[in-house]
Design goal:
The protein is of the alpha+beta class and 104 residues long. The protein is built from 4 helices and 4 strands, in the order αββαββαα. The chain has one domain (4-102). The strands form 2 sheets. Strands 1-4 form a two-stranded antiparallel ribbon. A two-stranded antiparallel ribbon has the order 2-3.
Length: 104
């Protein structure tokens, strides 16, 4: 017998395509697709490239492969393909806080 909990999990916890948001580069209508300026070999779901302020300013505040430093930051904000999942509706930071409090 299949419990409703398991069926609900399938619909609620769907894996939605997403990537880390780079506020300096992503506009309000940014898509979850990896943009052409995204540095190669950077995990787009966990880390974000750090914008080099000098390069960014010299390029009229436009992102390119040359706009970033060699360092990465942990991602705290994501762009989702759609918001039809609990993961997309609730930020990962909230999930992180919940899991830290629930599991000792």
């Amino acid at each position: 017998m299949v419990s409703m909990v398991h069926v609900n999990y399938i619909f609620v916890a769907e894996d939605i395509p997403h990537r880390c948001r780079v506020p300096e580069c992503d506009g309000t209508n940014a898509s979850a697709e990896i943009p052409p300026w995204w540095p190669k070999n950077v995990d787009s779901k966990c880390f974000r490239p750090v914008v080099d302020v000098n390069s960014f300013g010299k390029s009229n505040n436009t992102c390119s492969n040359a706009t970033f430093e060699e360092t990465l930051e942990e991602c705290h904000e994501w762009i989702y393909e759609n918001h039809n999942s609990i993961v997309a509706a609730v930020s990962m930071e909230q999930f992180k806080n919940i899991s830290e409090n629930w599991f000792f």
